[in-house]
From TrEMBL, chains A, B, C, D:
Domain of life: Bacteria
Protein name (database record): Glutamine amidotransferase
CDD domains: YafJ
Domain Glutamine amidotransferase type-2: 2-244
Record keywords: Glutamine amidotransferase, Hydrolase, Transferase
Amino acid sequence: MCRWLAYSGTPIRLEDLLYRPRYSLIDQSQHSREGVETTNGDGVGVGWYPVDAAGEPALFRAVGPAWSDVNLRELAHATSSPLFLAHIRASTGTPVQQSNCHPFRFQNWLWVHNGSIREFARLKRDLVLAVDPELYPSMAGSTDSEVMFHLAITYGLRDRPVAAVERMAGLIESVAHRHGVPDPLQMTVGTTDGDRIWTFRYSSEGRSRSLYFSTDMTALRALHPELDTLRRLSEETRLIVSEPLGEMEGAWQPVPESSYGIIQQGDDELGRFAPAGP
Amino acid sequence: MCRWLAYSGTPIRLEDLLYRPRYSLIDQSQHSREGVETTNGDGVGVGWYPVDAAGEPALFRAVGPAWSDVNLRELAHATSSPLFLAHIRASTGTPVQQSNCHPFRFQNWLWVHNGSIREFARLKRDLVLAVDPELYPSMAGSTDSEVMFHLAITYGLRDRPVAAVERMAGLIESVAHRHGVPDPLQMTVGTTDGDRIWTFRYSSEGRSRSLYFSTDMTALRALHPELDTLRRLSEETRLIVSEPLGEMEGAWQPVPESSYGIIQQGDDELGRFAPAGP
Amino acid sequence: MCRWLAYSGTPIRLEDLLYRPRYSLIDQSQHSREGVETTNGDGVGVGWYPVDAAGEPALFRAVGPAWSDVNLRELAHATSSPLFLAHIRASTGTPVQQSNCHPFRFQNWLWVHNGSIREFARLKRDLVLAVDPELYPSMAGSTDSEVMFHLAITYGLRDRPVAAVERMAGLIESVAHRHGVPDPLQMTVGTTDGDRIWTFRYSSEGRSRSLYFSTDMTALRALHPELDTLRRLSEETRLIVSEPLGEMEGAWQPVPESSYGIIQQGDDELGRFAPAGP
Amino acid sequence: MCRWLAYSGTPIRLEDLLYRPRYSLIDQSQHSREGVETTNGDGVGVGWYPVDAAGEPALFRAVGPAWSDVNLRELAHATSSPLFLAHIRASTGTPVQQSNCHPFRFQNWLWVHNGSIREFARLKRDLVLAVDPELYPSMAGSTDSEVMFHLAITYGLRDRPVAAVERMAGLIESVAHRHGVPDPLQMTVGTTDGDRIWTFRYSSEGRSRSLYFSTDMTALRALHPELDTLRRLSEETRLIVSEPLGEMEGAWQPVPESSYGIIQQGDDELGRFAPAGP
């Protein structure tokens, strides 16, 4: 299992969210409180969109624990971004290597995942076969998360994200059913095209990993007078996190079971998520 | 491209071959003389069978350059073995990560490869589909070399090694032909079950990477009086190398183009290698 | 803070102690129960003496977390030893790098340490100046632990180990006093010449990190019928650990506060430890 | 020995100099043409000042070879800077670890070095003792280069850089003389406070490693019409390199033996360098 964070809003230094808050994501790499594992030390990654530019996001991914990664600390200090995803990894069996670190990137899209596909080794071949052969060469690692991403792209992530992820989930459940694997899917997912962020919370068994979002920047500011950064943030600014940063009680709302959310200009969206048949 | 070495015979400290000779394998990681690349700094690995034991060989594989790997130096000093394969990697495009380092292992078998499959990214899906689905989960990395190994196992490496590798080569050429990729295969391969060593030198274009074997321990000893180790070696002891160690002129014989060799108790074998149709 | 283990007795596969027991040392890298930190993910090391040989021990040291180190697992499976030290690191501020991983080695000696010197950065220069200038070049890393080792060698570790460590502790306390640093030393130490093991438990404040030893192999065997390995172990076999492996209640005895122990042929020794004035 | 590059001028993407030119610095990590070693694969680093900010520069330093460092490639694409130093390392004996990678940083200063102090292990203690005790804790690695930097700071680098480096060189030669080490110093150095760049070329034996600077942006543009980037560069823009990038014949001028240069607003400076007595 893993922990992740997505940010959208006023450009902010990465360190203001990755390092400064109490129970920051980097703290969670050593002391997760709501994770299945307390330690998330099998790699770290951040993908960010530049302040002034369109196009592909940049990636930093490393195999060591986040808490001791000196380059990440430097980067987080030197880099501001209006939109980024960060992830700390606890491997569920696949190797600890850079190509298995999140976020995964395809063109202008990023993808992070917490959870797993049960008995992935047994199901993997059938799942990979369902990926568009044109996309096959762009899978560089060996995780379930990267296969999920490429399945979602295969099913139209770039045009209809929610429907694509629902088909991806449906395929996994149907392949697992064929192999006699119960309750195969456990996921919270964050994905973005550099403009909007889509987030998903779902598990086959209906007991999904935790996921929270911050709806109201005013409340957040009131609760965190010590975080100077928050004062400068626009009303549109949003955070999505695997587990709350700091003690910002009242500022965090759980994403409901089996649902999706969209962070975007104007009103955000929250809807029901259900795997789709093939 | 890469460099590799296989040893079979009287148990010997790994360092006696990996570090001590002039132009040792570790030297070749920085200064290869016959390789396509002078630098082979994208990982290193050694797989060895214990002196007193049967069963699975042990592996050490690391992503840094061989020349600065302190653990490898310690291990090579502390470990003796009657049969081992060592490999230094120069990536042809796939990530520098442990799961892409040679040797690859399956049960009691080891496999090292120098060369590449041309346009592997394009051909990979079709090749992977030809791997026995039961074997699919044991592919942990992303190299052409590991897929070749699993194709060979699929085609009976454990029972009829030469025929299995010939079918593997035939499949690669036939898949490549279908995709319009000319001269797809370039390989020298070493593989062992812990008892015998099979080696292959082949390329679709008939201009294969260099490969040498040492046939005569008496000659080797005469040429290397400075290597104490050689004096203790049995007549059966053999070495196969991508490029000669030391200046042992006269002691190295090139493996002929398009051929295989078998190092074994009693007479060794050398035969003609030809890819087999499906 | 860190965790460590020392073993002396019948040659045993490293994995039998590093991986197999419940709450093994490798488990403790993720879930220490008695450590100051629950996570010890800043490196791992093992130093072992060969079964059949005298002379310098071999080292394996790596910067990643022990729990995901594939090479360590292979090595621990392939290697047996009658005497070895293993260590998992939680940095107290110095960089996560191989030269800071324990054990440290000097000639035939090994050294592991759990604890720290308070405000080491401020005290380091004075401590390093007290190291024998001949020994200065052999300090390759930047930890307090390595400086402690070289101070002990300076003060005669190779001839009178207990007295040398007492002078080392005395120097640290005296230098710290001069700089106004209270309660500077916190340590459990294991050191060996390949024949005997000396162990120390001490802290300036009299509240030292945990340390246990196993005195009675008969009792240990009785308590662990599931560990086949134990049946083969001689009566002389001993273990020293930062925290108990498994649930071997009754089999572990705490090393008393401010004391040293010597594991050796014949009767072991236990004595009072007190820092010595300069 | 190593290779390095310093850039000052119109903000430029790091990749435009680190990756794009023929014989770029990253190419030189595998195929140096003028270096003592053809391979510089023992680490890489870049220190850059942000486009819009004053203060401390950011660092990225990694232990693997530059040519396969995916994070460096991402960073170089995402980052623009008006002033940066980059370095690829070939160790002269000290460990391959992040704390030994250049540039070294102290407050707003950066430092890169190509060369070595002969028999550094023997001289190190005396040199370290000459470092201001206040600065001692900020030495984190074990290289001669970092000690040279801290000696220069001790001798006033921040106020009178040329005089400080001359005293540093003088001290090294005098300490070496005392130990009977001939011709101890070999160096090209680049150092900057974020405003100006000082560069030094010197060796005790008068045969220093190569160093070049680009004096005339107009000429450079004329010679490199293929490099779009050059068209946008101000007349003040300057490059200093261990060996020329691309084939820009006529555009590169060797820094004379035993001299220093200063890149700054207005006229640059070039002067004679001579070690100063204590």
